[in-house]
Amino acid sequence: MSAIELGAENFERTITENEIVLVDFWASWCGPCRQFAPVYEAASEANPDLVFGSINTETEQQLAAAAKVTSIPTLMAFKDGSLVFSQPGAMPAPALDQLIAAVRELDVEKARAEAQAGQQGQSGDGTA
């Protein structure tokens, strides 16, 4: 399945209603974005069980700002509604394949619990 266009009207619903969603923030004037596009499209075709979305930062400036995108392309990965990866820059195909495998294997509930335990340990109240 090829990448779908995401915007303010369907972004949150897409993230929450699908197990794994990859999102590419791009712009037509961006050279690295154009280089990454065929890599991203090939990954979407090779992984039809995942949702691949694309956000044009020119037409969705508020959404890009809300997502704290400061450089494009930026690739984000969501699993079970949680942001689990965010990185600017064009990614080569092998790295994207590794990312997809890592997101598939990630136990989001365990990661949330570990993050919460880490935050409690850093509270400075001596209960660490």
UniProtKB/TrEMBL annotation:
Molecular function GO labels: protein-disulfide reductase activity
Which classification does the entry list for the species?
Bacteria, Bacillati, Actinomycetota, Actinomycetes, Propionibacteriales
Keywords from the UniProt entry: Disulfide bond, Electron transport, Redox-active center, Transport
The Thioredoxin domain sits at 2-105
**Which source organism does the UniProt entry give?**
Nocardioides donggukensis
Q: What is this protein called?
A: Thioredoxin
Give the encoding gene's name: trxA
Tell me where on the tree of life, at the top rank, the source sits: Bacteria
Q: Which Pfam families match?
A: Thioredoxin (PF00085)
Q: Which family does it belong to?
A: Belongs to the thioredoxin family.
**Cited SUPFAM superfamilies:** Thioredoxin-like
GO CC terms in record: cytosol
**Gene3D superfamilies noted in UniProt:** Glutaredoxin (3.40.30.10)
